[in-house]
Specification:
2 domains, mainly alpha, elongated, 143 residues, 4 helices, two-stranded antiparallel sheet
């Protein structure tokens, strides 16, 4: 049976290492999201609420139609939107710092490798035994 078709291509795709890398990335990303959400909700937003006089952004809204016995309120909840913007900015900042640190480490490793290669190139290679012997013979003939 030949490996052709959709399922064969899918099996080949799954067998590659990229899928595992992607799965690890998704799992780490989910854990990172939980950490950032806790940072925003439990640490930063209370400080911002304290600075703004105890305003809880979650509660900020414009009520278009008040709630009645038969219908829920219709409101524009711009406080939730403000929280989302703050969360986005914090996540973007943390990711930026993380990428910057990784790039700095990569640059340092590449710089070290380039320095090692330059040091190897600066030191001339030892002459071969034949060259050493010929040099000794030349020096003896000069005497």
């Amino acid at each position: 049976m030949k490996d052709k078709g959709f399922f064969a291509e899918f099996r080949k795709f799954i067998a590659r290492g990229n899928v595992m890398d992607m799965a690890v990335g998704v799992i780490v990303g989910a854990a990172f999201t939980a950490i950032v959400n806790s940072l925003v909700n439990d640490i930063i937003m209370p400080v911002i609420g304290l600075i703004t006089g105890g305003i809880d952004f979650q509660d900020l809204q414009i009520v278009l139609r008040p709630a009645t016995e038969t219908a829920d309120a219709v409101a524009i909840r711009y406080g939730v939107f403000i929280n989302a913007i703050i969360s986005f900015l914090i996540i973007a900042f943390v990711v930026f710092c993380f990428v910057k640190a990784i790039n700095k480490m990569k640059d340092a490793a590449e710089r070290k490798k380039a320095e090692e290669e330059a040091a190897k190139a600066a030191v001339p290679p030892a002459p071969s035994p034949e060259i050493v012997l010929l040099t000794e013979i030349r020096d003896l003939l000069k005497k």
